[in-house]
Write a structure and sequence with these properties.
This protein has 132 residues and is of the alpha+beta class. The chain contains four helices and five strands. The termini are far apart.
Length: 132
């Protein structure tokens, strides 16, 4: 089933490994085949991956965009998850991470990214409540 995207002026979108930028007014594009698609707002660059959960999101994003290198990213992901549990030994964090990991093991990286946003939000809440 084709995917129809509406892009705002100057909005960027990643389609496959290409970054497409809308240079003019609002426009619509239709993607006819199955490729990774991410809006600019859903991308965390390596430079912006400044917390453990943001690093995890970035690794999953790479799994999604570069499925050929999935094994390499799995190794990085599970090292980061171990680090996450050392930093946040928390039942909610564990439950959220289990949901993300399940989607990764199912090779459903887009859904893993969506689940990981919950992890990012929870981490933000925890960090906002740290004194000092």
């Amino acid at each position: 089933m084709p995917l129809k995207l509406t892009l705002k002026p100057n909005e960027k979108v990643l389609i496959g490994t290409a970054v497409i930028s809308n240079a003019g007014q609002k426009s619509e594009i239709v993607i006819q085949n199955t490729v990774p698609v991410l809006r600019e707002k859903d991308i965390i660059t390596e430079e912006n991956a400044d917390t453990i959960c943001r690093k995890i999101y970035h690794v999953i994003l790479n799994m999604y965009v570069e499925p050929r290198n999935e094994k390499e990213y799995h190794d990085i992901y599970f090292k980061l998850v171990k680090e996450l549990f050392n930093v946040y030994p928390d039942q909610v964090m564990l439950a959220l991470t289990m949901e993300v990991s399940q989607k990764i093991l199912e090779a459903n990286h887009y859904q893993a990214l969506k689940k990981c946003k919950k992890l990012l939000n929870y981490e933000s809440e925890l960090l906002a409540n740290v004194p000092g």
